[in-house]
Specification:
The complex is a heterodimer of chains A (307) and B (312).
Chain A lengths: L1 H34 L6 H19 L7 H25 L7 H21 L14 E3 H4 L8 E3 H23 L1 H11 L1 H6 L4 H23 L10 H15 L4 H21 L5 H15 L3 H12 L1
Antiparallel strand pairs in A: 1-2
Helix pairs in contact in A: 1-6, 1-7, 1-9, 1-10, 1-11, 2-3, 2-4, 2-9, 2-10, 3-4, 3-9, 6-7, 6-9, 7-9, 10-11, 10-12, 11-12, 11-13
Chain B lengths: L4 H11 L7 H26 L7 H19 L4 H22 L4 H21 L1 H4 L5 E2 L9 H23 L1 H11 L1 H6 L4 H27 L1 E2 L1 H4 L2 H15 L6 H18 L7 H15 L3 H4 L1 H8 L6
Antiparallel strand pairs in B: 1-2
Helix pairs in contact in B: 2-7, 2-10, 2-12, 2-13, 3-4, 3-5, 3-10, 3-12, 4-10, 7-10, 8-10, 12-13
Classes of the chains: A mainly alpha (307), B mainly alpha (312).
């Protein structure tokens, strides 16, 4: 019974974590789909959003969840600026290596992480919100439950907001003109251009949206995690593993990949030890590459064609 | 004149320690040669074959730990590591290549980035083998004077330079370049692209592993955070090649010279020391936007810029 309890508890923690991971992965997959580049500054942008939320909390006592509304637009414009002034010019430069833009985003990430260290020191920070230690217990709702499960209030709230943002994004991409144009650009930018879509603007907007999504994820992570300037790198990797797992450029795949990774990671953390979580992350990545090169998205597509 | 330039440079490099430089300058020179060796390895895969890797620290660290583990577990001299790192790194390169080279372009780049991080985490956690975060300490370095270390790394670097030149002049080299230019076209002409990409990765990895094994001998101390470092090894390697010149023979040497001197300059200045990554990042962005082929690759562009009395 204890074993089952532990397993279920790990599963719940994994799904809650996975919801947040999905948000990070979706930002990356959108950028990848439309611009065909990998944004290696993704985690660092999340770190920037976390610092915005942190300072709003420390200086003005604004709840980290509310600062989503500040961090998302801020990151959106930061993303557009980065795209316009740094990434776009490089796309036009003629060079031997086609991966110059990727290396450029590494440079951007380095600068952001180092500037954060300079301005905010490398201390670990966290926001001591009142509800951080609150939790719901299964026995509160069901008196004679055979097993005891708990659900942290902050984690569940973060998860719910992540789901909400995901639904909003889905609505935006499938039901608005702008969203449809973005999807058209991702499918075939030349054809989209011929159909009258302003492709260069779509690229900028998509980069902004990708950054805004990861910014929102940062705000949601802040109450349950701690903050330090070099945390970006590991989240960039997470985002990448999710996109490979989910299928390159697929939004639905990113959601599924995020949840899968979250569950897998919390399983390795419980049964193997915290230090091995990054290795577990990578094992699932290798497994996806070797056995399922197209990611979860390819499975979904097969289902569709089968019918 | 141009024909003899390599020999003149080589002779100068051999004669430099005889002048009697102090050990700090010798240390800088050795660092330059270490980084140019890694850079040459990276350049073979990234520059000539077009497969940008963000995880060369993995090979560097495996080379260093081969030497280190032989020393701690078997009690062998770490110089055996220099020899034995070759097969060990080769095996690791084959495995990494088999997994990561399924991906193309930027996806391969990210896969190698993840690979480098995983090697670091694994080394941190396999405490019985690697000593974890305690690292491996060489109780006694072979020589106190730096001159012999200098000659050994110089020989390694010259050997690497010549073998890269040899490889790039052969059929393999043309295959590598064709893969970089257009993988699909190369495949359709009957070049087994995957095999040649793995070959390039193996060559590149072993050169980097050699540098790692030498680093163990020279520094006498390694730990996972030093040899598997993403910023100080993997990204600095990329910068060395980007600054010097992608897909050029002399690029890595020039890039290593500039990067090591710049790093020392920044580090020695107390006001700038904390900001060295910002400066490196800005330099990287600057190079990519204005000199995408590096100093050697865009040399004509630079000359044109400074030519007097002529409107651009």
């Amino acid at each position: 019974m204890v074993q089952l309890e532990l397993f279920l508890q790990t599963l719940i923690a994994g799904i809650l974590l996975g919801g947040l991971y999905a948000l990070i992965g979706m930002g990356m997959t959108l950028i990848m789909g439309v611009m065909k580049i990998i944004n290696l500054a993704h985690g660092e942008l999340m770190m920037v959003a976390m610092y915005i939320a942190f300072w709003l909390f420390t200086l003005f006592h604004i709840d980290p969840y509310l600062s989503v509304f500040v961090a998302m637009p801020a990151l959106f414009f930061l993303g557009i600026a980065l795209q316009k002034f740094l990434i776009n010019p490089v796309m036009k430069v003629d060079s031997i290596l086609p991966e110059n833009q990727v290396i450029l985003t590494v440079g951007i990430g380095m600068v952001l992480a180092n500037l954060a260290t300079l301005f905010f020191t490398s201390n670990y920070r966290s926001t001591p919100v009142a509800y951080a230690t609150k939790a719901f217990y299964l026995t509160d709702f069901w008196k004679n439950a055979p097993i005891e499960l708990s659900l942290s209030a902050a984690w569940s709230l973060s998860f719910l907001i992540a789901v909400l943002i995901t639904i909003l994004l889905w609505f935006f991409l499938s039901h608005t003109d702008l969203g449809k144009s973005i999807r058209a650009t991702a499918q075939d930018s030349d054809a989209a251009l011929l159909m009258g879509v302003n492709v260069s603007r779509m690229r900028a907007v998509t980069f902004g949206i990708g950054c805004a999504l990861v910014g929102a994820a940062g705000c949601l992570f802040l109450p349950i995690y701690y903050l330090f300037p070099s945390l970006g790198g590991q989240f960039t990797l997470i985002a990448f593993v999710i996109t490979i797992l989910g299928g390159l450029g697929s939004t639905v795949g990113a959601i599924i990949g995020g949840v899968l990774l979250g569950v897998f990671e919390s399983m390795t953390a419980t049964y193997l030890g915290m230090g091995w979580a990054p290795v577990g992350r990578f094992l699932i990545f290798i497994a996806a590459l070797v056995f399922l090169p197209g990611g979860v998205a390819s499975l979904l597509r097969e289902q569709k064609f089968g019918k | 004149m141009k024909k003899y330039l390599p020999f003149i440079i080589l002779a100068l490099l051999f004669l430099v320690p005889l002048v009697g430089l102090n050990s700090y300058i010798m240390h800088i020179l050795i660092l330059v040669l270490i980084y140019s060796l890694i850079g040459m390895g990276w350049n073979l895969l990234g520059g000539f074959c077009g497969q940008v890797s963000f995880g060369h620290a993995a090979f560097f660290g495996v080379g260093a730990y081969t030497a280190g583990i032989l020393y701690t577990k078997l009690g062998w001299s770490t110089w055996w590591g220099l020899l034995l790192s070759l097969p060990v790194v080769l095996v690791f390169s084959l495995v990494i290549g088999f997994i990561c080279l399924r991906l193309r372009g930027p996806y391969f780049a990210l896969a190698t980035l993840a690979m480098g991080e995983v090697f670091r985490v694994t080394a941190e956690n396999l405490v019985t083998w690697t000593g974890g975060d305690m690292g491996i300490l060489l109780r006694e370095r072979t020589w106190v004077s730096k001159i012999w270390y200098y000659y050994i790394i110089l020989l390694l670097a010259v050997g690497a330079f010549l073998s890269i030149k040899k490889v790039m002049g052969s059929k393999w080299g043309y295959y590598f370049v064709s893969i970089r230019e257009d993988q699909d076209a190369a495949e359709s002409l009957g070049i087994p692209t995957t095999t040649y990409k793995i070959l390039a990765l193996c060559l590149s990895g072993t050169l980097t592993g050699l540098a790692g094994a030498f680093y163990m001998n020279y520094m006498g101390y390694i730990d996972p955070k030093v040899v598997f470092n993403l910023h100080d090894i993997s990204i600095v390697t990329i910068m060395v090649v980007m600054v010097g010149g992608v897909a050029t023979y002399w690029g890595p040497l020039i890039g290593a010279l500039i990067m090591v001197l710049l790093a020392e300059l920044i580090r020695s200045n107390p006001g700038l020391g904390a900001a060295h990554q910002t400066l490196f990042g800005v330099l990287l962005i600057f190079i990519i936007i204005f000199l995408p082929n590096g100093i050697v690759g865009d040399f004509r562009k630079i000359v044109k810029l400074f030519r007097p009395g002529r409107a651009r």
